[in-house]
Amino acid sequence: MLIYNNSLRLQLLLLEKSAAVSLKFAGEMPKQQHLWLFTIFFLAATFHPSLADVGTAAQYSPPYLPTACSGDDASQFPTNNLFAAAGDGIWDNGASCGRQYLVRCISAATPGTCNPSQTIQIRIVDRAETSVSRPSTNGATIILSTTAFGAIANPSAASVNIEFQQ
Hints:
Layout: H1 2-46, E1 53-60, E2 83-86, H2 88-91, E3 100-107, E4 119-127, E5 142-145, H3 146-152, E6 159-165
Protein name: Expansin-like EG45 domain-containing protein
Domain Expansin-like EG45: 66-166
Pfam families: DPBB_1
């Protein structure tokens, strides 16, 4: 009887410990799953796929004529004065003439320069490299008219980082 009772006690003790370990792991699994789900949702919300490109924008002021796209034709400019000259990265041997881009300021060297809630639509009317008026900064992706630049950023800035999409 003593052997039977000891054996039974040992089996019960092992069963109890096994159940405690199982419950311990079962209690941890939801936390681990919760952490993984949180991580996946956080990454999905933070790093959403974007069809836009990132570059820099500078500004240029009048005179805007003649342009590389349409020469002395003043009708090439949109009535809202939201236009730009294409930098070498988007010039595409003149194929960018007339293209329209959505442009948004995303950052600048000086905090508070951007108006990130403002997205504008601009039309390419010139080539930055050959424009009559020189840009505020060389090598920018897009050179915005003073009106366009002022719509998305503080006009006193020389250049800003932008997100743009055709």
